[in-house]
Amino acid sequence: MSDIRKEIERRRTFAIISHPDAGKTTLTEKLLLYGGAIQLAGSVKGKATARHAVSDWMELEKQRGISITSSVMQFEYEGYCINILDTPGHQDFSEDTYRTLMAADSAVMVIDAAKGIEPQTRKLFKICAMRHIPIFTFINKLDREARSPYELMEELENEFGIGTYPMNWPIGCGQEFKGVYDRERREILAFSEFHRGQNRIRAIECRLDETEKLDELIGPRLRQSLADDIELLDGAGFDFDIEEVRKGRLSPVFFGSALNNFGVEPFLESFLRMTMPPLPRISKDDIVDPFDEHFSAFVFKIQANMNKAHRDRIAFMRICSGRFERDKEYYHVQGGKPLRLAQPQQLMAQERAIIDEAYAGDIIGVFDPGIFSIGDTICEKGQELCFEGIPTFAPEHFASVERVDTMKRKQFEKGILQIAQEGAIQIFHEPQTGVEEVIVGVVGVLQFEVLEYRLKTEYGVDIRRRSLPYELVRWVDNEDVRIPELNLTSDTRWVQDFKGNNLLLFTAPWCIDWALKKNEGLRLREFNRD
Ligand code: G4P
Fold first, then answer.
1. Is the backbone of residue 336 left (phi > 0), alpha (psi -120 to 50) or beta?
2. Which of 50, 78, 142, 365 is least surrounded, with the fewest CB atoms within 10 Å of its CB?
3. How far is CA 69 from the centre of its chain?
C-alpha cells in the first residue's frame, strides 16, 4: 500500500455535537486524554487545565469580542489519526457551527440522560441528516438521575426518524449507577467510584451468568432487571447493520459518564471500528475519491482578524483527496490563480503548529489575504475540479441596520459586504424600494455584536440596530414567480440576498403554511446552495 493511502486510511474526522451542558467539552477532553494529547492530573484541577489548553485560541478571540471559532483538534490513538471538529454551543452558535458539519465524515451526538433531545441537538442533527453522515449517540451523565434508556431511545427514533441500536446498556443510574452491559462482548463493565477521574479506566469485567460475582457487584435486584432488559433487547430481533449506520439511518447508542471517564474508551474503540476513513466528496462533475493522489480541498470557514496587527484572515480547509505539501504550487479554482501556501497551520490539541504536509481528512488553516470565500476549491493545477458549494443556512434572528454617520456610506457598505462574504452574517435588502436599510440575518444572536464590533474597529463605522420580528426565512425556489402577486400574510416580507435570490421572511410557522397553501406551485427552501 502506498504511503499516501496508508495515511489516509487511518484518518477519522468527526464533529461532536450537543446542546450546551450535555458534556461535549468533557467528552472531548477525555478523548484527547486517550490520545495522550493532554495530561490530566486529577479530575477537577486537571480538567480546568485541559480546558484552558484546548480553548486558548478561543479565549484570545473572546478578548477581542469575537468568539466564533469551531476549533479542530488532532490526535493519535492506536494507529488512528483522529480529527475532532468542535461545534460551539451557547450564544456562540453561528452559521460556522453548521458549516463545520460540512467538513466532518461523521458526528457524535452527546445527550444528557436526564434531558434527552434539546433544541440545539435538534438543529445540528438536521444538518447531519441532510448529509446522511453516520451519527453516533453518547448518552451522558448516567451517574446522575436519568430518564429510562428505553424512553431516551424512543425519543431519538420518533423525533429524528432514525433507528437506534444500543451498543451497551446502563445498569441503574444516579447513586445506583453500577456500570454498563456491553452487548457485543456480552459482558458487564462495572463502574467503580474508585476510578473517578483516573486517566484510564479498567472496569471490572463480569459475564452475565456469573451470578454470585454479579450479585456482589450490582446486587440481585439490578442483576435481575438487567437480565430482563437484555432478554428484551436481544428478543427485539433488531439486527445491527453497519451499512445502515454508514448511511446515517441507524445510530449506535452508548451510555456512560464522561465526567467519570466511564464508557469513554469502549465508545472510542467501537466508534473507530465502525467509522470509515475520509468519505468521497461530490464535485460539480464527479465524485472525488479521497485516495486519489492529487490534492484537493474546500474552504468551509473563514476566520477574520486572527492577528489584528496584520488584519489577516485564516481560511480553514478540509482536505478531500491526496496529500497536501507546504510551499507547493496549487490552484485556487474560484480565483482562477495559482497559489502557494507557505504557512499552513494545524491545531494539534494544544497549539497551532506550522505543518509540512497533511492528508485527506485533515483540516488545515491557511493565511487568507482576502481571496477566499466559503465553499472555494483548492486543487492541483491541471487537475481542476470544483466542489459543490456549501449551503447557506436559514438565519433565525433578524435586525435592521443603518449607519449612524451618514457620511460613512462607503465604509459601511464595504464592511458589511465583506463580513457577509466571510459568512459571518447574511444581508438582505428590500427589492425595488431604494431604501438604504440593510436587513441582517444571523443564526446566533452573538453575531450581531460581532458585526457591531467589527464595523467599528475595522471600518470605523458606528451602527444603529433595530430587532425585527421575523423568525423564519425561506428561499423561493421558483424562478418565474411574481412575488408581489403572491397571497401572503400581511406581515410576510419579500427581500433579496446580495446575489439577487428572492426570500420571504416570516414571523411564525403558520405564515409559511399559509404561503404554501394559498399559492399553488410555490416552492420554499430552508437553505440555499448558490
Ligand atoms: P458542554 O461542553 O456540552 O457545554 O458541557 P461540559 O462538558 O462543559 O459539561 C457541562 C457540565 O456537566 C459540567 O459541569 C461538567 O462537569 C458536567 N458533566 C459532564 N459530564 C458529566 C457526567 O458524566 N456526569 C456528571 N455528573 N456531570 C457531567 P459544570 O459544573 O458546569 O462545569 P465544571 O465546573 O465541572 O467545569
1. left
2. 78
3. 11
Match 425595488 to its residue by C-alpha cell.
432
Dihedral sign for Cα 315, 316, 322, 326, please. positive
**The three grid cell numbers given for residue 17, joined into one nine-digit string:** 455535537
Q: What is the pLDDT of residue 488?
A: 96
Q: What are the boundaries of each domain within the chain?
A: 16-68+107-274, 281-379, 397-525
Q: How far, rounded to the nearest angstrom, does the alpha carbon of residue 441 sit from its chain's CA centroid? A: 20
pLDDT digits (tens, 9 = 90+) for 226-263: 889 988 888 876 678 999 999 999 999 999 999 988 88
| 93-107 CB burial, b ≥16 within 10 A, e <16 | bbbbbbbbbbbbbbb
What is the reported pLDDT for 53? 35
Please give all residues whose beta carbon lies within 6 A of any atom in ligand 1, as ranges. Answer: 18, 20-26, 89, 140-141, 143-144, 257-260
Closest by CA to 43, choosing from 52, 30, 34, is 30
pLDDT single digits (tens) 356-367: 889 999 998 888
pLDDT of the residue at 187: 85
pTM for the model: 0.85
Q: CATH assignment of 16-68+107-274?
A: 3.40.50.300
Q: How far, in Å, from the CA of 68 to the mean position of ligand 1? A: 21
Q: How far is the CA of 335 from the centre of ligand 1 (A)?
A: 44
- Class at the top of the CATH hierarchy for domain 281-379: mainly beta
Give residue 357 CA to ligand 1 midpoint distance, Å.
Answer: 36
Domain 397-525 CATH assignment equals 3.40.50.620: no
397-525 matches 16-68+107-274 in CATH topology: no
- The kind and range of the H/E element at 155 are helix 149-160
Q: How far is CA 485 from CA 32, 139, 517, 518, in A?
A: 57, 50, 15, 12
Of all atoms in ligand 1, which is nearest to the CA of residue 51?
Answer: 36
Contact 35/77 with Cβ under 8 angstroms?
yes
